[in-house]
Amino acid sequence: MSIKGNNHRDHALKRGPYRALRRKGAASPVRRGLAFVSPVMLAFLLALVAVPLVGGAMVLASFTADLPSPQDLAKDPLALSTKIYDRTGTVLLYQLEVERREAVRFDDVPRVLIDATVAAEDKTFWTNPGVDILGIARAVYADLTRRGTGQGGASTITQQLVKQRIVGGEVTIQRKIREAILAIQVTRTYSKREILELYFNQIYYGNQAYGVKAAAETYFGKADLSTLTLAEAALLAGLPQAPSAIDPSQPGNVERAEDRRAYVLAQMEDTGAITEAQRAAADAEPIKVRGQQITTITAPHFVFQVRDQLTRIFGDEAIVTRGGFKVTTTLDMKKQAAAEKQVKTWVTDLRDRNVWNAGLVSIEPKTGEVLSYVGSVDYYNRDDPKVQGQFDVAGIGVRQPGSSFKVFNYLTALKKGATAATVVVDARTDFTGKADAAKVAAGTIDPKRDCGYCPENADSQYHGPLSMRQAIRESRNVPAVKFLQQYSGIEDTIQTARDLGITTPIDPANVGLSLTLGAKEVKLLDMTSAFGTVANLGVRVEPTFVLKVEDPRGKVVWEHKDYEQKRVLDAGIAYIMTDILKDTTRPDRDFIFGSWTNIDRPAALKTGTTDDLKDVYSVGYVPQLVTGVWMGNSNADLMSGRDFFSAMGPGQLWREYMKEVLTGVEKKDWEKPANVVSANVVLAPGAYGGYGSGMLPSSLTPFTTQELFIKGTEPRSSDNWYTTGCPKPDGSTSIGMRIREVGPAVWAAYTQQWISDANKGLRSYGRYTWNVVAETCPSPSRAPSPSPSPSGPASPPSGTPLPPGSTPAPTPVPTLNFPLPPGITFPPGFTPTPRPP
């Protein structure tokens, strides 16, 4: 809306003499007795008379000494509703507002509405100087005699506007006189058209509607004022007198609304704006309105994130709620519908596992655009403490991410020289060295009593020498802690997490090695965005909920373009991590998670489960989309620890959502960066392998597999783990594995204990047998009974392709500890052992 000062009256709308068409003998349907409080009115009239007679200029000066400028009428912008739309700009999600208002230009107001308003509120509007002395006299007379005149109240349209915009509604003689003086000055400053435009945008029409455009949409669902009928225009024009009492959306007000409309129509006939026939026809129409205004909101937690981002953009929430912006957001309605459906479906299906809430965030990695966002299973469920639906668990809540945080640790290790083929020993370890050496040797460590920090694997199994890739595949905890202690470091891992997008504060002085296991709380939004950085091969783009902001005139004042794209991670490292995480969605590469999370296209994923099952996570991505899922209970109630884990809950939700929203989307894989090379190294192949030295093969090496490396980090030395074993009682020897773990000295005793247990057959888990060579061969008199030579890894299911350079091996028969997804079958005699992360 643009208002300019003008020193002349605008007579453009004068239609000439009005025709008096009131029916003879017909009484007004309603007498408009809108008089001010009688003492005030009387005093005002006397004051006007007294000014030239008593005190003259002195009296006038007392009222005008601190009088506001008439320019103030248009100085402060009206509070306009800010409308938030989806990414197409067509679906209204919500309106942010102090007052529900949308500005309208005078030229867009139809003549019928102008005529109705002038007839109802101020018949002399086009000719009066801002006040109506005769009208005031009539109102005073009516108030004194308690006889309605039918000629209207004392306040002109200009006075009503001054009252609303400048002087306020205090009922005093001084305020009324100041209002009249200002109304005269305003009329000298602005044209009549400008005054009416300000009036149409300022006045309250009831039912939360400020301004005539909001009123037309609220009551009649009409965004175009030109489509208003005569009956509708008359009803709107009559509402400002007493909006709450006349509001026709309230059933008890309908009769009063009909009376008020009839009065306005009669006044229009009286001024010659309509004919008697038109008045009668409009008067006979039943009042039809949309009903009481009900505030609805689509994607509520997303909308509140939009509001917060707008506040950051403009620096003041008041600007956002009063600015009248049109905001085009990033929300994809199809993806949002799929997200809400999948969250509700899986939470409902998993209630027998005591799962009552979930959140989901989906982002386009290259642009940072948040495409879908679910902050709780049911925004309107305020009563259930397990849900607390209005709390946003995705963007405000901080929960432990479990093993999904390991990605930041392993990325840091890769940055600092470790490789996907680097091997550590998965052995029960006290990382503080506190545990008694004798108890370690005997294998009788009590982790709660004897250990400083002895992290447990989720399945309580310890699988010996494993590569980084295999440790991530199986989400094993001890290897993750070893990589953090030996390669990554706590401070550098925290920095990696920050670089990628984690915003919650993590103080390295207050966190230990449990950091890698997800001991520090984070936001699901941050985790999803951080994984999106990896999906974008190391280029960080801040997440955005807003695409474009337009002001009330349609001018673009902010747009998501030319946004910062910051390289925070080497592309080759991001590619290698992505390649490892892709295994998690492939049943032929990951026997724990692959069957639960496969989406029939290249996809990377990491899940996470907290020790006590308060939180379960799943964050995964394809080149075009990254999605994070959290499940749990808002009151921190534990989920079922007996038959539930991350792949079963958020893993399957992630799978079904991704399959649905990616239907028809091109299946793409990541292009390998130039600094990534491959080499055959000594690691057992297949989903059940991953053990070995990770070095170049030698003549004694029983198997190899192909692994990815950053150029220059490939192994240079030949394998020295596989060697001739200790002599058997008959003097013969066999090939065995001599573990040469690189790490702190405190690990050694625990590794030796694992070797001892492995040679006793305690660490095979039905997966493979071990022949681990001790550092010192026993004397012939104490020679152990022969142990079989290494059998190699278990073969994957029939028909599963092996990585290049791999060799197959016999299939053992382990036992089944967890249920498998429907439709997953394995060859006769083979049942893998899924284990929770």
Can you tell me about this structure?
This protein has 837 residues and is α+β, with helices and mostly antiparallel strands. The protein is 33% helix and 11% strand. The protein is built from 26 helices and 20 strands. The strands form seven sheets. A five-stranded mixed sheet has the order 2-1-5-11-12. Strand 1 and strand 2 (92-96) form a beta hairpin. The protein starts with 37 loop residues before the first helix and ends in a 78-residue tail after the last helix. The model is unreliable at 1-43 and 781-837 (pLDDT under 50).
List the helices and strands and how they pair.
Blueprint: H1 38-53, H2 57-64, H3 72-75, E1 82-85, E2 92-96, H4 111-121, H5 133-145, H6 157-167, H7 173-189, H8 192-202, E3 204-206, E4 209-210, H9 212-220, H10 230-238, H11 243-246, H12 254-271, H13 276-284, H14 300-314, H15 317-322, E5 326-329, H16 333-349, E6 357-363, E7 370-374, H17 406-415, E8 423-426, H18 437-442, E9 464-467, H19 468-473, H20 477-488, H21 490-500, H22 524-535, E10 539-540, E11 546-550, E12 556-559, E13 566-567, H23 571-582, H24 594-597, E14 604-609, E15 615-622, E16 625-632, H25 647-661, E17 676-681, E18 705-710, E19 722-724, E20 735-737, H26 748-759
Parallel strand pairs: 1-5
Antiparallel strand pairs: 1-2, 3-4, 5-11, 6-7, 6-16, 8-9, 10-13, 11-12, 14-15, 15-16, 17-18, 19-20
